[in-house]
Amino acid sequence: MSTPSEQTRKVTIGSYFALAFAVVFFSGLLQSNEWYGVFDFTTLNGSFGSVVYGVNETADGIQAATTSMRGKGGSGARDGFLFALTLIPTVMFALGMINVLEHYGALDAARKLLTPLLRPLMNIPGNTGLALIASLQSTDAGAAMTRQLKDEGHLTKREADIFTMFQFSAGAAIVNFFSSGAVLFTLTLMDGSLAVSSSIGLAVAVMFVFKFVGANLFRVYLNITEGKEDKADNALTEEKA
What we know:
Layout: H1 4-8, H2 13-27, H3 41-45, E1 51-58, E2 61-67, H4 76-103, H5 106-122, H6 129-135, H7 139-151, H8 157-168, H9 173-179, H10 200-240
Antiparallel strand pairs: 1-2
C-alpha cells in the first residue's frame, strides 16, 4: 500500500539513473580493490581488522598469530552480541543508501519497471527490486531493506513473507557461491579433465530459478493455511452468533 504522494510522484529520467546506480551499487558488479570499488556496497562497507590473541617466538624473531575481531574461544550470549555488533554498520549503511536513492526516485522507477515482472512471478511489487538485488550480495542489507519497505507500508505481511522466503533460499547467493562454491569448478581429475562438467553460469541460474520456486511454494502454503484460518474464524463467528 502506498501513500497518495507516492502514487502521484512522477518517474523522471533522474529516477532511472538513480535506479541504474542502485542496481550496480548493490549487485557486486564493481566489487574490487581498484578505484571503481568505491561504487560497490560491499567494498565500501569494508570489514573489521584482525586482533592478536597470541604470539609464537621463533628462531627468526616473534611471529604474531591473528584471529577475527570476535576473538578466540567465545561462546554464549557474549559471542552472539559481538556477532550482532558486526551487522550494525552493514544495516545502517544499507538503509542510509536506500533513503538517499529513494529521495532521487529509484524506488519509484523500480516499482514502474519491475512490478509487471515480479507480480506474476511472486506476487510482490516492483519496489522490492533493490532489496532483491541487495539480497544476492548481502543477507543483512536485503533483510534491512525488506523490513523498511514493510514498516513504510510498501509491502503487506503476505508479500513480506513471500519475499523473505525468496531471500532465505540460497541467501547472498552470488557472494557465497563465488567465494566458496565456485572453486569446485576448477577441480580436475588425475587425467587433467574437469571434475565438474557443468558451468558456473548454469549453477547460478539453477540457484536463481529455485529461489523463485521456493517463494511460490510458500505462496501455495500461505493459500492453504490462510484458507483454513478463514474457515476457522467464520466457524467461531457463527458459534458466537
